[in-house]
Amino acid sequence: MTPEHNPAPQHSGAPDPFTFVPYDDLADGQRWSTWLDVEPLCRGPEPRPGWVVTGSGAIDTELGILKTGKEADVSLLQRADPRRPEESVVMAAKRYRSPEHRSFHRSAAYTEGRSMRRSRDQRAIKRKSTFGRQVAAGEWAVSEWNALVRCWQLGVPVPYPVQIDGTEILMEWITAEEETAPRLIQVRPAPALLASYLEQVRDALITLVRDGVAHGDLSPYNVLAAGERLVLIDMPQVVDLAGNPQGFDYLRRDCLVMSDWFTRRGLPVDGEALFADLVAQAW
Ligand SMILES: Nc1ncnc2c1ncn2[C@@H]1O[C@H](COP(=O)(O)OP(=O)(O)OP(=O)(O)O)[C@@H](O)[C@H]1O
Ligand SMILES: [Mg+2]
What we know:
Number of domains: 2
Distance between the termini: 52 Å
Strand content: 15-25%
Number of helices: 6
Bound molecules: adenosine-5'-triphosphate, magnesium ion
CATH superfamily of the largest domain: Phosphorylase Kinase, domain 1
CATH class of the largest domain: Alpha Beta
Shape: globular
């Protein structure tokens, strides 16, 4: 991009997200939007929601870390075009950590039956070289990206996947009352809402199973309560039911963990029966 694409505006005033930023004078925690830097296949599926900001003059601004996790950090990122105030959105940025400070608890068992195209990458991961760790972080990011895209296209409630760039995924920020939506573990819904949540979880599980996959790490920590709607997150480990010999074990665990939460909240659910129902739908 050249400075001509970003002509100086003729206004003054308090600095806000829409204040003109000179071409080579982005503040700390800012960058030019990476939307146009990534390959088309690294952008979210069509039809794209109207809020996705695609302009070349947009600036990404870090708004702070939402949560530091075992394998990734999730931050809020604003993408806004200073020249078009209506072009502004806050997204969740999930960034996988490559080196050292992560525990690879999601590893071999999940990926069994998956193929990795490049044997050079596979060897690097085995050697645990720096390059290998970067590749591994990227593989988890790609795996989560693919799962989000697939779920979105199937109509499973997940954050809309905006783009993937290496180890960073930008996705829809899920909110409740304009704050980050609480995790399911944090809420105590009234009986009618609880019953609706159960139907939503069941529907999501059925859709996934019919498509031949299980979430693989479903829990009240990985489901957000966006008011009346539930949204499933955190899916780098989505498991292929046919290809992974332990696929059904993961599905069963997902069922038991979720049923346990509903039961504790006062709506008894038989996890084994739920699992049996789903197995019957799988073929
Ligand atoms: N799209 C989103 N919208 C709102 N909040 C989100 C979103 N994605 C993630 N979060 C928040 O960040 C937290 C961590 O996200 P996620 O579970 O995907 O990452 P993780 O690294 O696996 O974390 P953990 O190790 O704690 O499971 C979530 O529990 C949720 O609170
Ligand atoms: Mg999580």
